Amino acid sequence: MLTAALRSGTAERRAVFEVFARHLPAGRRYGVVAGTGRVLDAVEAFRFDADTLAFLRERDVVDEPTAEWLADFRFSGDIHGYAEGECYFPDSPILTVEGTFAEAVLLETVVLSILNHDCAVASAGSRMAVAAGGRPMIEMGSRRTHEHAAVAAARAAYVTGFTTTSNLEAGRRYGVPTAGTAAHAFTLLHDGERHAFQAQLDTLGEGTTLLVDTYDVERAVRTAVELAGPSLGAVRIDSGDLGVVARRVREQLDELGATGTRIMVTGDLDEYGIAALAAAPVDGYGVGTSLVTGSGAPTASLVYKLVARADGPGADAPMRPVAKRSTGKPSRGGRKTAMRRLDGHGVACAEIVVTGEPRPGGGDRPLQVPLVAKGEIVGREPLAAARDRHAAALAELPATALQLSRGEPALPTEFVDGGPGR
Amino acid sequence: MLTAALRSGTAERRAVFEVFARHLPAGRRYGVVAGTGRVLDAVEAFRFDADTLAFLRERDVVDEPTAEWLADFRFSGDIHGYAEGECYFPDSPILTVEGTFAEAVLLETVVLSILNHDCAVASAGSRMAVAAGGRPMIEMGSRRTHEHAAVAAARAAYVTGFTTTSNLEAGRRYGVPTAGTAAHAFTLLHDGERHAFQAQLDTLGEGTTLLVDTYDVERAVRTAVELAGPSLGAVRIDSGDLGVVARRVREQLDELGATGTRIMVTGDLDEYGIAALAAAPVDGYGVGTSLVTGSGAPTASLVYKLVARADGPGADAPMRPVAKRSTGKPSRGGRKTAMRRLDGHGVACAEIVVTGEPRPGGGDRPLQVPLVAKGEIVGREPLAAARDRHAAALAELPATALQLSRGEPALPTEFVDGGPGR
Fold first, then answer.
1. Mutate: best of A55, A114, A146, A301, partner B, most B CBs <10 A
2. Which domains does chain A have, with CATH numbers?
3. What is the rounded average pLDDT for all residues in chain A?
4. Would you call B143 and A113 a contact, using CB atoms and an 8 Å cutoff?
5. ipTM, 2 decimals?
6. Tally of CB atoms within 10 A around A378
7. Quick one: which H or E segment has residue A67?
8. By CA distance, what is A296's nearest residue in B?
9. What is the rounded CA–CA span in Å between residue A267 and residue A409?
10. CB 3.0-4.6 Å disulfide test: which of A161, A243, A310, B80 passes with A14?
């Protein structure tokens, strides 16, 4: 595409691409924007080195003029978007990329890869955090997903309210707080559970979490408190009917005087499994598979569509809205502005998407912020800011948004034609 | 775990870990081993650099003796496993890692991440290739999954029979053949479809594939043949009822004399969508989302379990089979040997998993090959070998394995106690 556009003289036309989801995963009430910070890192690093160019030429993927063009490539356009942690709905324009066609089309795959993955994980993670109702949650899904996706998943989970991750690289790269667990293998390695528990206590102190379901839970809890004393930090249960076992363990711990020892549960938990344990004496959850695979929706189904382009080259050429007419895949031409409409009580009631000139009303909260300006990254922020923003965005939604049951999006998306726009 | 094991003196005990799936994804008939080559790359590269060690010390994740131990770390044990491309079933021991507990436990997350991802993609991809019945298939799912997972997915898809990938990095890194497509944005960028088609033909020649569903398919096909002549390579349809549209387009192309022009279809295809087009005049498929997300099973649910360990330190200490007794998560202790039992016609009839000393019968094909010996990689092979092996492994399975309908695994897994083993 790039080579043909460079030859036909259309590569330098100004173009506007928008990222949006035509729909949320079936039954979901809202989506969560995550990965924006990673998009900025990727845009900044998007260059073609000599090895890559040599490969592209050898395989005849591009011709020599295109290779020369790529050698000098750096994105010099503008990007606006929903700030990270924000909620989104069908057709929310969560990212807008403006530049020449050539430079904007090159970013398509990396932008969509990052957002489709991170938004899928965050959209699932947010529901889990809601279900956990403030109880601490460890993200521990690294082993169930691609080794690099695991790092991004831990980051996205933290944005939605997870407390810690077992992924140390996410700690190193993004500053996500980390936590670990002992595995059954550690118990099996030792000459009996007593030997294993003692080894762990000797190293990590009585505040550690002992895994009590390798052999017999009741015996393990007795041994744990005997060795650690009543100040044992926590026990972890990873199998069986977690609610039933947690109740029994709580009673046993209390009888043994370990009233402050917490109970942590793990084992194929998803948002429904977490919600089902709301009334159980559980003090924390470890969540893996269902989080990193988006709990049934492993991709956010975001698309990257050309919505406007210039009639000719140069910054002053008039822009024209464009849209394909493919059956069943409707899209709306023109650059869009988005606002969240709030009612008199500050509760969100609609997602307003305006083509042309926006005229925000008093209760309309603008959703798009500048992320890249003339190729310079301007939207970088600490990850904690995204986490705080998500909590605030969620608090603003109507109560129905927090239902786990399948249903319609919590807000309707309303399209407004604001008249002639850019 | 590592720090505690180093302190308790158990870190140097010999240990055997096995990777297996307790079950296949619901309804699947077989799984496909993929990612083995990537595991070998990861094991070879598994070291701790100064920055990483500084982070681990700063955060107090490990103590100083453990950091010193990690600084010298390189895996010095043995790995055996199913060769890449092989089929697997519940409890097939697809990878066996032997070494000291310390060195083998460290590999758990990266080994599982790679295999859980790549096997999930390959297990879905193989069904799609079966459904396509030999018609060419382009992997084009990069934008629907994490940016690095995309590269691994393209590699796994190639193992299962996909013809090409749109992921250029998979071409560069793993030698997977690459192919591209033009997007609707390319058509929309130009002053009309005619302008766009001409630009593409000028650059890529009449053998290219023109995308014909941006506006009106019938008009686009007419324009395409008018501009390219009857030697036009192919047209692509990305929307609508693909079977119906393909028939109409075939008729139109034939009427226009473009009898050799192929029809390529794309658009949320999975194995069922591909199978439904078996009788349609379709010459190739492009598959994205469903492939890279494992078509409903985005992780292979493989686990990494300690199955045997020594009673004390040193290479000569006697080994002891171990297994946890957690409710609902049964596991079998002891190192296992696996064979595929073939009947008199060379058709597979059972997966034989032997604990203790294996005694293969005449019709038993051994499944495990050496991959790492005393820390040296010995199992590297060209990716084409894995692709050929998958075709052969699939041909050996009973016909029921190739059914797309949900059902039981195509082979039963039979456990044999071969007596005292290693």
1. A146
2. 182-265 (3.20.20.70)
3. 95
4. yes
5. 0.96
6. 13
7. helix A64-71
8. B296
9. 29
10. A310
